[in-house]
Design a protein that fits this description.
The protein is an alpha+beta fold and 96 residues long. Helix content is 52%, strand content 18%. It has one domain.
Length: 96
């Protein structure tokens, strides 16, 4: 396992799997930006954005849950995984 500070490479996903999570990651970030800029619960799109944010967050977490089981990634209390979109590597980030 390669180490870089508090990150340890624990696995790798396929290009297709990387593309799935990248789309969800970009959608999640885009919806968060839209939500912050909207900031008006009476706006006609407010409820739809909130619903989309919830659906996207659920799909995002489901991807991580499924892949962690499929590939049996190492985990740590207080840690989280992140993906390097360039290499498809999954890194465990441990809290300092």
């Amino acid at each position: 396992m390669k180490k870089e500070s508090n990150k340890i490479v624990v696995g790798k996903v396929t290009d297709e799997e990387r593309n799935e999570i990248r789309l969800l990651f970009e959608r999640k970030n885009g919806l968060n930006e839209l939500f912050r800029s909207l900031n008006d619960p009476k706006h006609p799109l407010y409820e739809r954005i909130v619903r989309d944010m919830g659906d996207t967050a659920t799909k995002f977490q489901k991807w991580w849950d499924e892949k962690s089981v499929k590939y049996n990634w190492k985990s740590a209390k207080g840690g989280h995984w992140e993906i390097d979109f360039n290499t498809c590597e999954i890194k465990l980030v441990k809290s300092a």
